[in-house]
Backbone:
């Protein structure tokens, strides 16, 4: 048995903490057999750089993407703490999957929290059926911060989409793609297109050293017909940045737990030791056990932060659907953004540490590529590079000292020189 084949203790012996809601266990029971199947092939997929298309198919068939759709509308009615708890469990099996579904759940959240109208009804039905949504927002090349070269334009009696996007995470697995671009009046707006429409081309050209199986590459759109009317981004859910960051935190939490599983299983079966070790086997060596315990503690702390952050996003969601007075809703949204920024800077460090020190409990053979134990650090480091944490501490400090509101949309690109 290899170091990556060693199974963790049964879930009932886990010490990750209490579930986020009374109904969480019944929700999780529906998907845990799928998570287990996903986990079985995770290392092989990593070594072979094989996209998890089969695994996505299992999740689609189980309607995992309908978690946030209310039960009365055909979904599972999961709360946000439930959702982020399940995403952490999925990430524990394979961290590529929750990131590949990040844009899907962002679109689902915006839809679920929207006013009841024809647009919401259309997409709620598709979500309840299990359809998956990808996203195409960021651009490379000559894009300027705050603008998009992608155009949303008139196309006969409807609308069309022309442009090129990058970081289109999960779109290769999706049925529909949510795309942001520039409208005819220069406004920032969005449309949904079929992932299989003529003129859509999606490439798996992501070349990062981590999260390599998320299908996060280039998408091009050549006069692609849009579904329905464009939706201005300014009317979409204001807590979107907090939500998208919370998905990252859940994924990082799962990575830390996977690292804890890996080092625990490897130490349990390892029978080689050092001449100067404190035990005849690593499983009886107090120094090795201390490392294992430390990795578990880091994973536990990450989970606690993930759970607290999920509660903050849930409050922002409740403010939106309750149509609270604008000032109160804004305060809740700001609070969720600040809470997520604080959680991000600390949780990221915990998970990176877990992915590093697990090797202190193992021998040099643990660095063999066949075990792929390095994927935990690589994947965590890659996720941590999105929405850079160095800016988050400053944003929190500026809010604390000066009351400066945090930014509610992250954009990348070049900054034009100031006019003379």
Residues:
């Amino acid at each position: 048995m290899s170091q990556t084949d060693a199974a963790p203790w049964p879930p009932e012996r886990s010490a990750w903490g209490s579930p986020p809601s009374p109904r969480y266990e019944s929700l999780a029971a529906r998907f845990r057999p799928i998570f287990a199947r996903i986990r079985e092939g995770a290392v092989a997929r990593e070594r072979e750089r094989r996209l998890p298309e089969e695994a996505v198919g299992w999740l689609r068939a189980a309607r995992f993407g309908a978690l946030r759709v209310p039960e009365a509308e055909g979904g599972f009615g999961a709360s946000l703490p439930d959702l982020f708890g399940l995403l952490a469990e999925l990430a524990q099996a394979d961290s590529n999957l929750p990131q590949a579904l990040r844009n899907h759940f962002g679109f689902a959240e915006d839809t679920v929290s929207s006013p009841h109208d024809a647009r919401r009804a259309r997409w709620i039905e598709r979500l309840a059926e299990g359809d998956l949504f990808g996203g195409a927002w960021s651009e490379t090349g000559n894009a300027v911060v705050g603008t998009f070269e992608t155009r949303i334009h008139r196309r006969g009696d409807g609308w069309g989409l022309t442009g090129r996007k990058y970081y289109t995470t999960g779109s290769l697995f999706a049925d529909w793609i949510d795309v942001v671009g520039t409208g005819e009046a220069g406004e920032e707006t969005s449309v949904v297109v079929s992932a299989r429409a003529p003129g859509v081309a999606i490439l798996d050209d992501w070349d990062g050293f981590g999260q390599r199986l998320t299908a996060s590459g280039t998408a091009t759109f050549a006069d692609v017909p849009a579904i329905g009317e464009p939706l201005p981004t300014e009317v979409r859910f204001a807590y979107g940045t907090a939500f998208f960051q919370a998905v990252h935190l859940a994924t990082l939490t799962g990575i830390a737990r996977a690292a804890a599983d890996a080092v625990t299983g490897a130490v349990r079966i390892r029978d080689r030791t050092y001449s100067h070790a404190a035990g005849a086997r690593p499983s009886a060596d107090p120094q090795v056990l201390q490392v294992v315990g430390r990795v578990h503690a880091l994973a536990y702390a990450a989970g606690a932060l993930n759970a607290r952050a999920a509660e903050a996003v849930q409050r922002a969601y409740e403010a939106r659907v309750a149509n609270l007075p604008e000032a109160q809703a804004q305060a809740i949204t700001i609070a969720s953004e600040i809470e997520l920024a604080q959680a991000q800077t600390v949780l990221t460090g915990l998970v990176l540490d877990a992915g590093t020190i697990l090797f202190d409990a193992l021998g040099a053979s643990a660095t063999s590529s066949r075990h792929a134990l390095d994927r935990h650090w690589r994947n965590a480091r890659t996720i941590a590079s999105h929405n850079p944490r160095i800016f988050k501490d400053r944003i929190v400090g500026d809010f604390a000292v000066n009351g400066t509101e945090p930014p509610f949309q992250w954009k990348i690109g070049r900054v034009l020189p100031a006019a003379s």
Observations:
- The chain is about 45% helix and 10% strand.
- The beta strands are 133-136, 151-155, 158-165, 176-182, 188-194, 200-202, 219-225, 227-232.
